[in-house]
Each structure stands twice: as C-alpha cells, then as structure tokens.
C-alpha cells in the first residue's frame, strides 16, 4: 500500500501524530510525509496570523504530488475555530482526484465538543469527490500526549483500511 501523509501543525502536536502515522504506515508499504506550509516564507508570520481570520489569504507552498499514485491519503490538522486550520482547508480544495481512494483525516482539538463539527465538515467536502472510505481520528489535546493510547488509536485506524 502506498500512502501519503500531509499535515499542517502550528505548535507541533499534529506533526507528532503525522510522524507516528508515517512510522505505522511504513510498516505496511511505502509511506511519504508532506508538511503543508505557507507559500510566502518571508511574510510567513504575518500571513499565518492573518489566515486565522481570513483563510482566503492562505496559499500552499508546495507543488502538490499527483494524488493518483497513492492508495491512501492522510490529512492532519489542528482544529481552529471549529474547522481544520486554513492550510488544511486549502489542501482539501485540491483533493478532487480521490475517487475510489482511502482517506484518513486526523485532527487535534483543544476544546471539548468542537472536534466533531470539524470532522463532519471535512467528511462533507470529501464525500463529494467519492473516495472509497473516509476515516477520521479525532484526538483530544490530552490524548495527543498519551503515547500508548495514540499508538493504539493509530494502529486500529490503519487496520480498518483494507
Ligand atoms: C488560532 C487557534 C484556534 C483554535 N481554535 C480551536 C477550536 O476552535 N477548537 C478547539 O478544540 N481547539 C482550538 N485550538 C486549539 C488547537 O486545536 C490545539 O491546540 C492543537 O493541539 C494544536 O495543534 P498543533 O500543535 O499541531 O498546532 C485553536 C488553536 C489556535 C492556535
């Protein structure tokens, strides 16, 4: 199985999960990691700050890979204002060629209750592009620091992708 793990992380929590996913998926085949960054690195801080309020300002830095080469595409993000962070939202708008593919969306949330609405939001966008399966890992900030629990959550999630 060939997998791509893309993530955005502001303070490192989502990045840690992404690396764990990379480790777990590497055991199942070929897995690649791609950190989503803002395009304009010089004005990165200003853009980054403003994009919290005006997601339309967000621009991805990378030339995105050809998604058709992967069996599984993973996207990770922190929850910001009840939705994925702007760079992850931006990436979602590029995920239009995922028909028949497996998708895992994983996120870290800090406030109880705001995680589910973000997951539903993502699923609704992705379903329009007819992936084979969409699975979501909705991780509370506390859980993101429980290594053992995290490993089990990730293992169980990957087992469901066949
Ligand atoms: C600008 C901003 C907005 C946030 N909004 C939410 C929110 O609406 N709901 C929530 O549960 N957590 C919210 N959080 C908390 C983050 O989701 C949480 O701290 C997460 O672990 C950060 O992940 P990261 O370390 O990968 O950046 C917000 C954090 C930031 C910086």
Radius of gyration: 15 Å
Q: State the helix count.
A: 5
Under the CATH scheme, the architecture is 3-Layer(aba) Sandwich
Secondary-structure-based class equals alpha/beta
What compounds are bound to the protein?
A: flavin mononucleotide
Q: What's the CATH topology label?
A: Rossmann fold
Question: Key features?
Answer:
single chain, 162 residues, alpha/beta, Rossmann fold, six-stranded mixed beta sheet, 5 helices, binds flavin mononucleotide
Could you describe the 3D structure shown?
By secondary structure, this protein is α/β, with parallel strands linked by helices. The protein has one domain (2-35, 62-159): Flavodoxin domain (Rossmann fold, 3-Layer(aba) Sandwich). Helices cover 36% and strands 24% of the residues. Strands 1, 2, 3, 4, 5 and 6 form a 6-stranded mixed beta sheet that branches. Helix 4 (114-127) links the parallel strand 5 and strand 6 (133-140). Helix 1 crosses helix 5 (147-159). It is globular, with a radius of gyration of 15 Å. The termini are close together. The model has no long low-confidence stretch (mean pLDDT 90). Bound molecules: flavin mononucleotide.
